[in-house]
Fold this sequence. Notes:
By secondary structure, the protein is an alpha/beta fold. Helices cover 35% and strands 12% of the residues. It has helices at 11-21, 67-79, 109-127, 174-193, 208-212, 226-229, 231-244, 281-294, 310-313, 327-344, 361-370, 381-385, 389-396, 410-416, and strands at residues 38-40, 43-45, 49-51, 83-90, 102-103, 132-138, 198-201, 251-253, 255-259, 299-303, 349-351, 376-379. β3 (49-51), α2 (67-79) and β4 (83-90) form a beta-alpha-beta unit. The longest helix is centred in the middle third of the chain and has 20 residues, at 174-193. The radius of gyration is 20 Å and the shape is globular. Flavin mononucleotide binds next to β4, α12 and α14.
Amino acid sequence: MPHEVFHYRTLQEVQNRAEELSAFLPLSEDTGALFSPLTAGAFTAANRIVFQPMEGSDGTADGAPGEYTVRRYRRFALAGPGIIWFEAVATLPRVRASAHQLWLHADNVDLFRRLTDGIREISLRENGYAPVIIMQATNSGRYAKPQGTPAPLIAYRCPPLEDQPLPQECVVSDDDLRRFEEAYEQTARLCQQAGFDGMDVKCCHRYLACELLSAYTRPGPYGGSFENRTRFLKNCYRAARAGIGSQTPFFLTSRLNAYDGFSWPWGFGVREETGLAPDWTEAIRLIRELRAEFDIPLINITMGNPYRNPHVNRPYDHGNYVPDEHPLTGVGRMMAGISQIRQAVEIPVVGSAFSYLRQFSANLASGMVREGRCDAAGFGRMAFAYPDFIRDLREKGQMDPRKCCVTCGGCAALLRAGRPAGCAVRDREVYTL
Ligand SMILES: Cc1cc2nc3c(=O)[nH]c(=O)nc-3n(C[C@H](O)[C@H](O)[C@H](O)COP(=O)(O)O)c2cc1C
């Protein structure tokens, strides 16, 4: 069935379409499962709702939270998710994705601290509990744009991602990779000082650590075998652990691409002989190894590339192109993958990409949690459009369709333009396209 836009008025209509498409959407009428506490490692989150990392491109030139950053997290704190998975924060100025991406360093750590203190205070006052706050530490790699223009740092030359083949000089050397790894030590130390509960060594959406997972064609210690392709990620963890010490409740984790959506040898999560069909074997192995060596208390699963196949990452009604798959097929791929990974690993899993279902997204999230297919549900675009859906769910058991994200692509377009990102439909007094 070709792409079509959202038009469902009832949960039954969603269910019917999903069945026609054989899309895996375990829906639940009752959304109560989202409101039980989640214990993972040493922390307990008050509920199973996660606000996903959503970059706002609204930091100061120096990388500190700006006025709009503070406003975004104030809205999030008021809303009351159990976990705020704080957006991508650069580990070095050279690896920022925009001139306004956050970048944590010794001279601005106090401003981050003020922000995390503020989030906890607001949520405690408003909701009676503080969220767990996890910071996503990033190296933007291929998508580095520290001055606002592309300055790619790539793991290997990858034709499906390049309109014009990038020159060999863009391929980062092994020595560069070692320097990038070391930066995680200082970032982790500062992240802890800044009051975060844990740090995500970002490994998704084809930023550097993620891209290395598919570096089958790269020669040397960072390419080829599984061991080599995961070396950078694990070395970043080792550096981070050195920065925080071992006797601390502060934890490390990752947001991980289980599948890139490109065929072998250009994508992680596929096999040579199976084209674009996902294969979760390596993702499962990697999670188990991260658990064994770094004691990660949970993992956040995502897929796709926001630049080349955004419909895999965030199924939508409107974007830069019309995908050749139905949006519910995309949501179903995500749910099936998360579910299969959850069955195979012993740690809590945060699921992604619920927002497409608008007022029914909580029904899908709750169904996934209720059936043990994930342990918490992450909301990205919905958190921008309608953060207080949590209150509506708690008080009325349902979300208001008039306030939901309409998957128009506006927030992503703002981000791509290097402008402060937010919802240009439901929060348009502040954000305009
Ligand atoms: C404007 C924008 C900014 C984003 N920033 C990040 C980010 O900093 N880190 C990350 O891992 N994902 C980021 N994402 C992806 C989202 O976290 C999420 O995976 C995606 O929107 C799909 O979830 P949803 O259907 O709930 O929106 C971003 C997406 C958008 C649209």
